[in-house]
């Protein structure tokens, strides 16, 4: 009898447990990923967000589905200051965890408006979270991974960071995601052999962020729970991940 894709992944993952750091796990894509990675594959999740109540409820769920994993969820604001992320990395190290994979997922979008009408603090918040927040994570976690010469970093990008033709009223968000694309390509040239980094456009998914941009139309899009299956093929199956990330890796290496 033919095995399903899920069965094939499960058998591979049975011998390959990973430690996966995901920022922004309180809701949306980050939460769906954290739950699925722990439930189906038994991976250990290191996560953060600024909402303690949601972190507590996620921790309860994660512990229920994979009680043997040492999940670590902390209240960390990735953009507020570099120091809080430094402390986050210190605690992770103290728990003897080293991420195999980082998903720099935490992100915000501005309140829609013409660029010249957008509140300066709203603009700053988007840049500080999406670009500087991601950089804070990488600044403190890449050094934990380098001694092992392995690790994959996924920086959440967006179509808004690749093709800005259809995107009006979210100039700060577009700028931040174009920034993520450039930063990822630059870091790709700096990482040691064995490590890879990619900017990933996840597609269009019904989350709070999408609702804030599209209102009721957002409900016509896929849910985070449907979306994760596609995302996981990017790195959960060893051969698939080698293939996909190999392509990105080659692309970035060749662009040196
Ligand atoms: N949904 C889409 O269609 C779509 C499309 C393209 C790209 N993306 C990207 O995918 C990522 C996830 O988006 P989403 O749709 O899942 O959004 P979401 O539902 O609004 O979730 C965003 C997550 O980021 C966290 N976060 C925001 N600011 C933070 C900060 N300063 N420190 C720590 N955590 C912070 C939030 O947690 P707290 O508020 O609890 O801190 C929340 O868990 C984003 O990078 C987004 O740009 C999404």
UniProtKB/TrEMBL annotation:
<comment type="similarity">
    <text>Belongs to the short-chain dehydrogenases/reductases (SDR) family.</text>
</comment>
<dbReference type="InterPro" id="IPR053241">
    <property type="entry name" value="NADPH_pterin_aldehyde_rdct"/>
</dbReference>
<dbReference type="Pfam" id="PF00106">
    <property type="entry name" value="adh_short"/>
</dbReference>
<dbReference type="InterPro" id="IPR036291">
    <property type="entry name" value="NAD(P)-bd_dom_sf"/>
</dbReference>
<feature type="transmembrane region" description="Helical">
    <location>
        <begin position="227"/>
        <end position="252"/>
    </location>
</feature>
<keyword id="KW-0812">Transmembrane</keyword>
<keyword id="KW-0472">Membrane</keyword>
<keyword id="KW-1133">Transmembrane helix</keyword>
<protein>
    <submittedName>
        <fullName>NADPH-dependent pterin aldehyde reductase-like isoform X1</fullName>
    </submittedName>
</protein>
<dbReference type="InterPro" id="IPR020904">
    <property type="entry name" value="Sc_DH/Rdtase_CS"/>
</dbReference>
<dbReference type="InterPro" id="IPR002347">
    <property type="entry name" value="SDR_fam"/>
</dbReference>
